[in-house]
Amino acid sequence: MIHSLFLINASGDIFLEKHWKSVVSRSVCDYFFEAQERASEAENVPPVIPTPHHYLLSVYRHKIFFVAVIQSEVPPLFVIEFLHRVVDTFQDYFGSTNVGDQLPTGQLSVVPWRRTGVKYTNNEAYFDVIEEIDAIIDKSGSTITAEIQGVIDACVKLTGMPDLTLSFMNPRLLDDVSFHPCVRFKRWESERILSFIPPDGNFRLLSYHVSAQNLVAIPVYVKHNISFRDSSSLGRFEITVGPKQTMGKTVEGVMVTSQMPKGVLNMTLTPSQGTHIFDPVTKLLSWDVGKINPQKLPSLKGSMTLQAGTSKPDENPTINLQFKIQQLAISGLKVNRLDMYGEKYKPFKGIKYMTKAGKFQVRT
Questions:
Q1: Hey, is 231 helix, strand or coil?
Q2: Which conformational region is residue 274 in: left (phi greater than 0), alpha (psi within -120 to 50 degrees), or beta?
Q3: Which of 51, 72, 83, 211 is the most exposed place for a label (fewest CB within 10 A)?
Q4: Which helix (H) or strand (E) holds 321?
Q5: Cβ 227 vs Cβ 235: under 8 Å
Q6: How far is CA 49 from CA 12, 43, 71, 207, in A?
């Protein structure tokens, strides 16, 4: 019934929280803080506050707000009675009529994901935008399915208690976004700006999904001519790989693999670059291409020897690609600016982008 419980002191600090199901971000309390600002006195804060996805029910006792978060409609008096029982339990435990003087309300857990007293000689904040594209391309070159799974990983080494904002040129691209608990969700909802006090060190700021097919650019293409002749023990194999929508960035780390039909005994191929291997036992062809030079596209050409007397394969093999593109987010996502508040020094800030292939298949 109750999803989470937050304890808020008179200074507006969330100093204790308890989650019974999944973790609810502290940013849900922003709605409570707004109601608290509108109230003339603490006792006048509405006991029930609706939000877009939750209800906040609270009681105020001993200079502390006990705020329960629920996700479905329940009898409010039942929840409020439960909160009073929680307060009574605290009172019995601490043996005081003023629980607020006994509970720890300082820096101990105001920002639970960041320790106090952090100090660095070089203050730096790096963010990596990494996108993985999954796609299926049919034999004519048309896109059957395409989607992007993206993450923004951070490495923050900043002194003190910095408060950061990260804004994007085109934040509406992001769909199905999952945030680190440090992100103030309400500000993202209203302004599409990431506002947060970061953890110290490495952490994943957010993950997202782009599935609208018209928004997913295909960064590489494969020209192919793979044919098997009826009543013949020979076949033709020819593929060429090239860049498509890369904004002038280099496609590198290209690896092409293809599971050949069982009837293929051997392959005699010549690559224009890179190295290739065909395993006659597993029938797996692997071609390590490396970088793509747009002025001289890499190709792999030759013939296939088929087992005598076997019929023509029912289907042509599927080509699988691996690749990466540095300094490009294929979705078009671009960071506009990164600002820091709360500290007086000027940190070094860096943003890097990378696109890589996930399950990227081309049917022939």
A1: coil
A2: left
A3: 72
A4: strand 318-326
A5: yes
A6: 17, 14, 12, 29
* Angle 314-315-320 from CA coordinates, rounded to 5°: 155
What CA dihedral angle connects 184, 188, 191 and 196, to 10 degrees?
40
| pTM of the shown model | 0.69
Give the Cβ contact number of residue 50 at 10 Å.
Answer: 11
Q: Phi/psi of residue 134, each to 5°?
A: -105, 135
Alpha helices in the chain (DSSP H): 30-38, 76-94, 99-102, 185-191
Estimate to the nearest angstrom the gap between the alpha carbon of 209 and the chain centroid. Answer: 7
Coil, helix or strand at residue 37 = helix
**3-state SS class at 226:** strand
DSSP 164-200: EEEEES-GGG-EEEEE-TTB-HHHHHHH-EEEE-PPS
Residues near 256 by beta carbon (within 8 Å), at least 6 away in sequence: 222, 239, 241, 285, 286, 287, 289, 300, 319, 320, 321
Phi-psi region of 63 (alpha: psi -120 to 50; beta: other; left: phi over 0): left
Q: How many CB atoms lie within 10 A of CB 160?
A: 16
Single-letter residue type at 1: M
Distances (CA, A) of 125 to 137, 138, 161, 213, 350: 38, 42, 13, 33, 6
